[in-house]
Amino acid sequence: VQLVESGGGSVQAGGSLRLSCQVSGYTVKDHCMAWFRQAPGKEREKIANINSAATTWHTNSVKGRFIISRDNGANTLYLQMNNLQLEDTGTYFCAGGPWGYCKDDDSYRGQGTQVTVSS
């Protein structure tokens, strides 16, 4: 199983980015997939996930600004990030679990992509 993130970068506050996670050796639509982030000096936190039924969950700090989605044909997971704030700075990781429901949804992880938000 290989997960490769892309789409990170530097953006001003209020801007947008879309992260992608290309997955191989594993079928995105059949498993729970998630996005995590780790801010400097802080613990890794889960910010969104999507199960095999396409039911999504977003943590409160990103709700209304970020949207997790997937493209079944491309076997790719996405995170659309709008109205980015300084506190969104960090390394973003995609991850997947062994089941369609969301438990142990970080069994497989990518290497991460850096997002830096400046004022």
What features would you highlight for this structure?
119 residues, seven-stranded mixed sheet, mainly beta, globular
Structure, explained:
With 119 residues, the protein is mostly beta strands. It has strands spanning 2-6, 9-12, 17-24, 33-38, 45-50, 56-58, 66-71, 76-81, 90-96, 108-109, 113-118. It has no helices and eleven strands. Strand 5 (45-50) and strand 6 form a beta hairpin.
| Pattern of helices and strands | EEEEEEEEEEE
Shape: globular
The helix-and-strand class reads mainly beta
Radius of gyration based on Cα positions? 13 Å
The residue fraction in helices comes out at under 10%
Q: Report the β-strand fraction as a percent range.
A: over 45%
**How many extended strands?**
11
Count of DSSP-assigned helices: 0
* Main beta-sheet strand count, sense and barrel state: 7 strands, mixed
- Given as residue ranges, the uncertain stretches (5+ residues, pLDDT < 50) are none
Indicate the mean pLDDT. 97
Q: How far apart are the termini?
A: 37 Å
